[in-house]
Amino acid sequence: MKLGRVVGTVVATRKDEKLEGLTMYLVQDLSLDLRGKDSLVVAVDAVGCGVGEVVLYASGSSARQTTATDKKPCDATIMAIVDTVDLAAGGRVYDKSAGAGEA
Questions:
Q1: Which of 29, 45, 47, 64 could form a disulfide with 39 if both were Cys (CB 3.0 to 4.6 A apart)?
Q2: Is the pLDDT of residue 100 over 60?
Q3: What single-letter DSSP state applies at residue 98?
Q4: Does residue 31 belong to any structural domain of this protein?
Q5: CATH number of the domain that 50 lies in?
Q6: Is residue 103 part of a domain?
Q7: CA–CA separation, 42 vs 25, rounded Å?
């Protein structure tokens, strides 16, 4: 799994019928200090997240291991909404309950 932040939505009115009803988000990869990297991915939402949230997502065959994505043609799936991130050497670097999202 990878750490990312939901930075936007993706709407596709014409798509494979197996993707009907799935919400798609644009997810930016995050570094350990939660700074955005240059890489972006379109990911299907399996947990009900929203724009701005820090999430865990899986790609490749693991992306099709959720109830929402089983046997569906997707290569990235948001599988968790992150509450906190703690580093052994640096303490808490993210806390969702801190309002703006930073610890």
A1: 29
A2: no
A3: G
A4: yes
A5: 2.40.50.220
A6: no
A7: 6
